[in-house]
Input
Amino acid sequence: MIMASFDYGNDTQQLVADVQQAVNRARVQLPDDVDPQVVAGSTDDVPTVVLAVTSDQGQQALADRLTGPSYRT
Output
C-alpha cells in the first residue's frame, strides 16, 4: 500500500488524475494478478464527533430513548 498526502487547497481532481497516470505507467512492472486502485479521500470523510452511551436498560429501550421525540431534529 502506498499513501500520498498533499497540502490543503490543491486541485484534488488533478492530483488524483496525476497519481492515476503514474500508477498506469508503473503497471507494466507489477505482477499480473495485481489490480492497483487510486482512491481519494479527505478528513471530511472522517466523523468529527463520536458519541457512546451506556445504560442499565436493554439495547432497544436505550435506542428508543435516544431517538425519542425530544432528541429528533
